[in-house]
Amino acid sequence: MSTNRKLTSRRWSRGAGAALVVMLGMIAPGALAQQAPAQSLEDEIRAFCGNIADAARDQRYLLQKKELEELQAGVDERIRLLEERTVKYRDWLKKREDFMRVADTQLVEIYKNMAADSAAKQLEIVKPGIAAAIVMKLSPRLASQILNEMDTKKAAALTSILAAAAAPEQPEDPS
Q: How many other C-beta atoms are found inside a 10 Å radius of the C-beta of residue 154?
């Protein structure tokens, strides 16, 4: 064989060999799999999970952040409600203290020494807030006698004021 022929033969055999390998890959993919290192299903799963781990972690953090923001909004609303109730309670307490100061001890002593029917007539004329403050400082027995002698509508109004002074309005519970 001549040198040219040898070179051409080698070239053809290399080219034919490569073509054969490509054809085998298309016909029988498993035939080439023996040459490349085989990845097991577990390795593929690990690789997939490794690739999406950061995205999944970011998504989990976003969900947790959203949940924390919702919880914080709930806490802020409850704090606002508590502050509002505190202001209302302080106002009520101040009104009650002012109410009790109106009924000075000397004024109460005057009504203690009066007859129930006379005291009732006097208290019907006085402002209801002042009358209620005086009645509240009297003994329960004397207060009931005076209320018994009063006009029923005025006695009921005084009783409402006394009840409101004894216990503040109970606000609704938000929970």
A: 16
